[in-house]
Write a structure and sequence with these properties.
Layout: E1 3-7, H1 12-26, H2 35-39, E2 45-50, E3 56-64, E4 69-77, H3 86-100, E5 105-111, H4 115-120, E6 124-132, E7 135-143
Parallel strand pairs: 4-5
Antiparallel strand pairs: 1-2, 2-3, 3-4, 5-7, 6-7
Length: 144
């Protein structure tokens, strides 16, 4: 099982997490991260999963929406680590982190292919399917 720690913006671990997010989330869609997009992440909470060798194998970001709600985004797990509990452990850690900060709800935009994963973790789909970055998504949420 992976070790999960909060990492800081603009550190070597952050750079490694951006590379992982690019490989898993953006490259398959022919998209890139602009410096402007990445610059907005300085105030986010970055939770990373590390393998025993200290490599980042999973990442997610939490962005405060308001005093009650936090948004989970940019969830990515290395392809060779998928299906091994890394993603579920990251989500659990994000929920613990959000609770410790007194947030009452986590929301996210799940790619349609990831909806079953989040349903297993007791998230609920809210509203209709929509398109984001050119692919179908659903808004999902969980009360903490």
């Amino acid at each position: 099982m992976s070790n999960i720690h909060q990492i800081e913006f603009a550190t070597p671990e952050y750079d490694e997490s951006v590379a992982l997010r690019y490989e898993v989330l953006r490259k398959p869609l022919g998209l890139y991260y602009s410096p402007e997009q990445l610059a907005t992440e300085w105030s986010d909470i970055h939770l990373a999963a590390f393998d025993p060798a200290g490599n980042v194998v999973g990442i997610l970001l939490l962005t405060a929406v308001n005093e009650q709600e936090i948004k989970m985004r940019q969830v990515a797990v290395a392809p060779d680590q998928q299906g091994k509990g890394v993603g579920a452990s990251l989500v659990e850690a994000s929920e613990d982190t959000a609770r410790s900060m007194n947030f009452k709800k986590i929301t996210l935009h799940a790619r349609e292919t990831a909806v079953p994963f989040y349903l297993r973790l007791e998230y609920q789909a809210v509203g209709d399917r929509f398109e984001e970055v050119g692919i179908p998504h659903f808004k999902m949420e969980k009360t903490l």
